[in-house]
Amino acid sequence: MVLLGWDISCRICRFLDPCLPFETFPCFLADEKERFDPTQFQESIVQGLNQTGTDLEAVAKFLDASGAKLDYRRYAETLFDILVAGGMLAPGGTLSDDMTRTEYCLFTASEDLETMQAYAQVFNKLIRRYKYLEKGFEEEIKKLLLFLKGFTESERNKLAMLTGILLANGNISASILNSLFNENLVKEGVSAAFAVKLFKSWINEKDINSVSASLRKVGMDNRLMELFPANKRSCEHFSKYFTDAGLKELSDFARNQQSIGARKELQKELQEQMSRGETLKDIIAYVREEMKKTSISEQTMIGIVWTSVMSSVEWNKKEELVTEQAIKLLKQYSPLLKAFTSQGLSELTLLLKIQEYCYDNIHFMKAFQKIVVLLYKADVLSEEVILKWYTESHVAKGKSVFLEQMKKFVEWLKNAEEESESEEEEGD
């Protein structure tokens, strides 16, 4: 059958041919043209934005209602391009010449935090209403970050503020920041400048803890140095750049992360040296050299050494054999522990590490007292530090169990101390 003209109603179509599929009705085809034609889609969005203008509440309502008749799923990229730049973006970030545009978009809005927060709400409402847009929106942000060189400084600033707000509120994943590590953006300083605006708005919206948690979640907490070219990728340069930009908390975070990274590498190297059977003399020399290079304190270092020693072997699964294995290992490495417990505070740090380790590793619960006594006899732990730990400096982990284990030994230490004092008095 030949279809009737566009002005004929669906009822007439059905009357003339009851078997005619609904999707071939002219009225349906008219709706589908608007729904699936990219040009028609773009014109519909642009027209709606031109009508709502700068009233972002009206924009949000328009977008909410339009999702019922326009195919957001198919044209998500087109939708987001228009909302951000006013029209479809060509590769590199320039607006396509042959496409309809609107002057009412993110890039033409006022360059202030309040306006960017209002735009963030528009995107937030849209994505909450149409959850399937979430992935497409993240892909859009990644693309926009790669196009940064094609935007003006003002456009970059607005995008940075918006991105920071969206990150702070969990609307997008911090993994989108991977785009900022693009070699060309980094080389020309675009990434670092963009990051300043982004992190300022993020911290303003939440705090540095929000930044650190989000970066750790996606494994980017140690990658911020990559915002700079290789010849400027140092903690000193990073710290000065962001501190001068008013982001000292970000500088401190990056410095702390670098320190944590250095400690992990040091611990890994120590374990490898132990597994290779390096001499204690060589290991001690290496650790002392690293302390000088990285300015790590003895208190921090003894914690790293302890963890390295205890991670250097595969522990027996049977509790009764673990203690014997631990004593044998610690006898071997007691000179290494002694080399980095020259201060009372370092000794106490080690003793607290032992307490925490024995508590966290259930098979070691009964080994605590034997380990402490061994290290006392090896001159790693002094009686003063052991008594201080027992009376006031222990932590809560396994407190009752370990204090009970140490009770007799502590009594012995006290008696020995009293006898020593008595002998000194008699000598006087």
UniProtKB/TrEMBL annotation:
GO biological process, one term: regulation of translational initiation
W2 domain span: 256-423
Cellular-component GO terms for this entry: cytoplasm; membrane
Gene3D superfamilies in alphabetical order: 1.25.40.180
A Pfam family per the record: W2
CDD domains named among the record's database cross-references: W2_eIF5C_like
InterPro entries, per database record: ARM-type_fold, eIF5-mimic_regulator, HEAT_5MP1_2, W2_5MP1/2, W2_domain
Record keywords: Activator, Transcription, Transcription regulation, Translation regulation
Residues making up the signal peptide according to the UniProt record: none
UniProt record similarity statement: Belongs to the BZW family.
Name of the featured protein: Basic leucine zipper and W2 domains 1a
Source organism of this protein record: Cyprinus carpio carpio
Classification lineage: Eukaryota, Metazoa, Chordata, Craniata, Vertebrata
